[in-house]
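Submission checklist for the structure archive. All mandatory fields must be present; incomplete records are returned to the submitter.

[x] Identifier: Cytochrome c domain-containing protein
[x] Organism: Tepidimonas alkaliphilus
[x] Residue count: 471
[x] Sequence attached
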Amino acid sequence: MEILGFYPTWYVPGIGTAWVMGIIGVIHVVASHTSVGASFLFALLETKAYRENKPQWMEFIKKYGMFLLVFSYIIGSITGPGIWYAITVASPRGVGGLIHNFVWVWAAEWVYFTVEVIGVYALVYLIGKVDAKTHLKLTWSFALASWATMLLIVGILSFMMWPGHDGWYLTGSTNDAFYNLNFFAHLGTRTGSMFVMAVVVGLMVASRMRDLELRREVVRFLAPIGLVGGLFAVMMFFYYLQTLPQNAIVMLHAHLKPVYAQGMVAVFAVATLWLLFAWWQPQRIHASLAAAVFLFVAIVGVWPEERMRESMRKPYVAGQYIYSNQVIARDVPGKGIEAEVDRLAEHGYLKLHPFVPERLRTVTDQNRLEVGQLLTKIACANCHALEPGAPLRNIPDKLHRAVDEDLILAFLQGPLKHGTQPYMPRIDLPEEEARAVAHYLAAVNRGDNVERLIAQQRRQVSAQWTSAQEE
Ligand code: HEC
């Protein structure tokens, strides 16, 4: 029997690996979108400064560029690799799937990123040291390289939602994967919102400028760009919603809209009012208020947006063929990939997963609890916390703390086995594995100290083993 290519499971109590990735990802998105948006603001500002001969505007660009260097670029360059570390252990097969589709896209993205980083240093430190026209060309190159990194990553992120048509499953071609159905809508939404974020940060920088006339001019130039960006982002977001697969729409209506819709509207309203106010009263924008608006946009806008995108994708992590719990959901002839759900149903995780410890490969009365815990971590914990009350859709609360093993088993062998919940993978386990999961979940729901029980049982088993050896 052929073992399946699973990796060890990384488990984070309470928030799950999903939130670990989410938190790092959101910080990264805030930093990176601000920088990409700012690169275009610089290009537009500098073009105007060049045409209308306003060298004093370069003062603002220098200040803002410095601010980006110290905050965005440092934070962005730490969280970027941070995302790689986190996703590689949280979803190794998801990452593997993406690499097998997009390795050259990523390579190209790194080239553009290098240009971007060199660009921002050159831009800041060459102000006044090279002639204005050369500097302007440099700034535009910096902006285009920055946006190229966004464009390439968005192609990959959109494929995570779905390829959008069956072509890719047959060809496996990078082109079919990259220009997936929601690529342009997604790119448009991020492009619009990057302007809003960059302008909001720009106002923060502007609020610290002493020269009031310069401040007025710059703010009046920036605020309309933010407003147009915001409107564009909203339009593209509605277009984006039209490009989603059915499972995402179910998730959106049933679980996400009720929680996040008001926050999204509030962010749009607050940002719009703030930009209008800034345009109207450029002298009266205070740094503390500007920082508060920025935090509001990041926490009430970006965090829900990223979480929504990740939740909507459920049950898949990428391309509608890799489930979040790492199991391959369907055949992908174009890549020579075969579905695994039925093989797991027939032989079970305990036989097919390479990282199950030998002593847990056969279920006994003494290890059932530990096997159940392991299987729940492998099969469910990518999407669910296992601790009652924990924030990541914890299973005990989802089961209303049911303590009846047969009832839990009926859920596992009903909806889960037959894949009737559009947001959950089809998880079809052999009878004894499903029983172990139900046994473990019932113990957790009862409030048993599961870790202590498992430790006790392990001690018992090893004592029995030692005494058997001695005889
Ligand atoms: C791909 C992610 C994913 C995996 C893997 C997953 N679930 Fe779920 N599960 C969800 C989502 C999403 C919901 C519904 C959303 C919500 O309630 O927040 C859900 C809901 C539930 C519910 C509530 C009842 C219902 O049908 O809505 C239970 C119980 C549950 N899951 C148990 C499990 C168990 C047990 C496992 C492992 C054997 C598991 N889930 C694996 C994503 C997943």
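[x] Structure attached
Curator remark: The domain at 349-470 is CATH 1.10.760 (Cytochrome Bc1 Complex; Chain D, domain 2). The pocket of heme C is lined by residues 255, 314-315, 323-325, 379-380, 382-384, 393, 395, 398-399, 411, 415-416, 421, 423-425, 427, 437 (CB under 6 Å).
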